[in-house]
């Protein structure tokens, strides 16, 4: 039985190899990490790709009603989230995630470079005090509706203005605006509302849902899509399961 330290060291070495190969678009072979991250490293540089992740309770909640979500999933899933950040050109969150969590969105729980940070705040309800707008670690963009003001910056962040379509900013338009800035590999980190917009629009290639063995019984929902008439109309992505400590990660591929 190998010592604990050597398992951690092997995992770190595998992760470093994955990170190195990600930019070259080569699929790493072998190892537990390669199974989970290999398909994500196979995306060629410059190819448009979007993945989302949510940690949810057994009853499909991502936070309490008041917006507290730290933490639903365990340490391994938190490290997984940071690995997705490290693989991404840009990490995207909705305005309410900034309001409730005030995250930095940098890579700290694994090796890797910080992605650009993107906050979708169509109605400009956020102030410049949030950490993501004051921290200089990575470029930051605010996606705002073009009917909300004319300023070009919020703190250190650059404001990109896009038109509304049916009341929201179309995920397709967000992806195009980011691609025009060289940001192709996108990680949508939450919350449920923002990811649901991408999923509903068919603008999500992959979804990682981590289910934690707990019941909140109330709180903010994970995914919310338009009503369907019967279960047969539900989405059936190709699924692969990976245990992350006590939690179970469902890797959902929509277009494979
Ligand atoms: N468990 C997890 O994995 C996880 C991850 C992230 C966050 N969270 C938690 O989830 C909660 C926040 O999630 P949430 O689902 O309530 O909100 P959210 O997705 O963070 O933010 C939603 C808001 O962002 C704006 N927005 C996002 N996409 C838009 C688009 N395409 N067009 C226009 N506006 C757009 C809208 O603002 P307007 O309201 O101004 O229209 C929308 O109401 C927090 O409590 C946070 O702690 C949990």
How is this structure best described in words?
The protein is α/β, with parallel strands linked by helices and 256 residues long. The protein contains 7 helices and 12 strands. The strands form 2 sheets. Strands 6-7-5-4-3-8-1-9-12-11 form a 10-stranded mixed β-sheet, with helices on both faces. The protein has a two-stranded antiparallel sheet with strand order 2-10. Helix 1 packs parallel to helix 2. The N and C termini lie far apart (37 Å). NADP nicotinamide-adenine-dinucleotide phosphate (NAP) binds next to strand 1, strand 2, strand 3, helix 4 and strand 8.
Strand and helix layout:
Elements: H1 4-22, H2 32-41, E1 49-57, E2 61-63, H3 75-87, E3 90-94, H4 95-101, E4 116-120, H5 131-134, E5 140-145, E6 153-154, E7 157-162, H6 171-179, E8 185-190, H7 192-200, E9 206-212, E10 220-221, E11 238-244, E12 247-253
Parallel strand pairs: 1-8, 1-9, 3-4, 3-8, 4-5, 5-7
Antiparallel strand pairs: 2-10, 6-7, 9-12, 11-12
Helix pairs in contact: 1-2
This protein binds NADP nicotinamide-adenine-dinucleotide phosphate.
NADP nicotinamide-adenine-dinucleotide phosphate binds next to strand 1, strand 2, strand 3, helix 4 and strand 8.
């Amino acid at each position: 039985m190998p010592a604990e330290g050597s398992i951690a060291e092997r995992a770190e070495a595998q992760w470093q190899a994955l990170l190195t190969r990600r930019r070259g678009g080569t699929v790493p072979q072998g190892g537990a990490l390669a199974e989970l991250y290999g398909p994500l490293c196979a995306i060629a540089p410059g190819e448009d790709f979007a993945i989302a992740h949510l940690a949810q309770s057994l009853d499909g909640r991502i936070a309490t009603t008041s917006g507290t979500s730290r933490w639903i999933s365990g340490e391994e899933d938190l490290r997984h989230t940071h690995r997705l950040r490290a693989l991404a050109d840009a990490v995207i969150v909705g305005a309410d995630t900034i309001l409730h969590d005030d995250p930095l969105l940098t890579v700290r729980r694994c090796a890797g470079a910080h992605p650009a940070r993107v906050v979708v705040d169509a109605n400009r309800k956020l102030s410049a005090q949030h950490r993501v707008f004051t921290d200089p670690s990575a470029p930051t963009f605010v996606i705002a509706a073009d009917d909300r003001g004319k300023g070009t910056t919020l703190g250190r962040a650059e404001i990109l203005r896009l038109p509304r379509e049916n009341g929201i900013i179309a995920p397709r338009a967000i992806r195009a605006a980011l691609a025009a800035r060289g940001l192709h590999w996108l990680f949508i980190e939450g919350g449920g509302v923002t990811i649901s917009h991408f999923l509903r629009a068919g603008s999500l290639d992959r979804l990682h849902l981590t289910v934690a063995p707990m019941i909140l019984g109330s709180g903010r929902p994970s995914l919310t899509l338009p009503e369907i008439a019967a279960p047969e109309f539900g989405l059936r992505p190709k699924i692969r399961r990976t245990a992350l400590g006590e939690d179970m990660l469902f890797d959902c591929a929509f277009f494979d």
